[in-house]
Amino acid sequence: MKKSLLALLFAAATLAAGEINIAVAANVSYAIDELKAEFAKSHPDTKVQVTLGSSGKLTAQIKNGAPYGLFMAANMKYPQALYSDKVAVTEPVVYAQGALAYLSVKKQNFAEGITLLGSDKIGKIAVANPKTAPYGKAAIEAMKNGGVYEKAKEKFVFAESISQTVTYAITAADIGLIAKSSLYSDKMTQYKEGVNWAAVDPKLYTPIKQGIVLLKNSEGNGEYRAFYDFILSAKAKAILKAYGYIVE
Q1: pLDDT tens digit sequence for 162-187
Q2: Range 98-204 classified under CATH 3.30.390.50
Q3: Superfamily of domain 2-97+208-242
Q4: Most CB contacts within 10 A, which of 47, 120, 149, 179?
Q5: Average pLDDT over every residue of 233-247
Q6: Given the DSSP bridges, would you call strands 93-98 and 175-179 parallel, antiparallel or unpaired?
Q7: Could you tell me the residue ranges of all domains in the chain?
Q8: End-to-end CA distance of the chain
Q9: How many H-runs (helices) and E-runs (strands) does the chain carry?
């Protein structure tokens, strides 16, 4: 009986070997496949399982025991909280800095800047939930600093994550405040800069520094450390830069 139990445990461990589970902020969804493909060149036997979502929701899952070993967040606040609670085993490190952009399927006069959001031409504005999505929080901050929040807030259509905000901007709203990184996806080439999209003035919001941490579940598994090191490598930074992120 003991031998069969040991055999089962060994078989389960063997099946789990070579697979890592990571939690990734939704704004990185456009770049993650390319990042995985590049990582696979040097680690062909490691399967990377990705769960995408808002940083706030992913943090809640992690605190409730979700089996992730690494977290790529959309800001530094959530990974710092996990580190403070000893759920993360490494201090948060910035892997990229994100940016906000406007997106509309209709031609817009982006020369108006953020005042465009307060005009009568705009009926609905897609925004990520600021309580759980750092890009949503940055969008609200930009509107407040730009003096249009009071006019714009009645027009909000809230999305659960920044990737869902892109969908809403295209289907359910006149314009959306999205992650600039999404605009570099092959699926978004039909939307033209200066016509359908433009960068939000970065002076209007706090820089979106995105943090990475290793979690408790990574301990004893060198493949998590390998992926962590890869994300901070020159090869990964080149990919992130190609998707509109600022990297150092």
Answers
A1: 999 999 999 999 999 999 999 998 88
A2: no
A3: Periplasmic binding protein-like II (3.40.190.10)
A4: 179
A5: 96
A6: unpaired
A7: 2-97+208-242, 98-204
A8: 56
A9: 9, 10
State residue 248's pLDDT score. Answer: 85
Q: Where are the alpha helices (DSSP H) in 88-193?
A: 134-145, 149-152, 162-171
- Cα separation, 28 vs 142, whole angstroms: 21
Proportion of the chain above pLDDT 70, given as a percent: 93
- In this prediction, residue 17 carries a pLDDT of 56
Tokens coding 28: 């990185």
Question: Using 50, 70 and 90 to split pLDDT, how confident is the model at 64?
Answer: very high
Res 10: pLDDT: 39
CB 62 within 8 A of CB 23: yes
Q: How far apart are CA 77 and CA 164, in angstroms?
A: 21
Q: Answer whether 210's CB lies under 8 Å from 71's CB.
A: no
User: Tokens at residue 158, please?
Assistant: 């809230």
* Joined tokens for residue 9: 């445990």
Helix (H) or strand (E) holding 79: helix 77-84
pTM of the model: 0.86
Spell 132-157 as b/e; 16+ CB within 10 A means b.
Answer: bbbbbbbbbbbbeebebbeebeebbb
The predicted model gives 193-197 an average pLDDT of: 98
Longest dimension (CA), the chain: 75
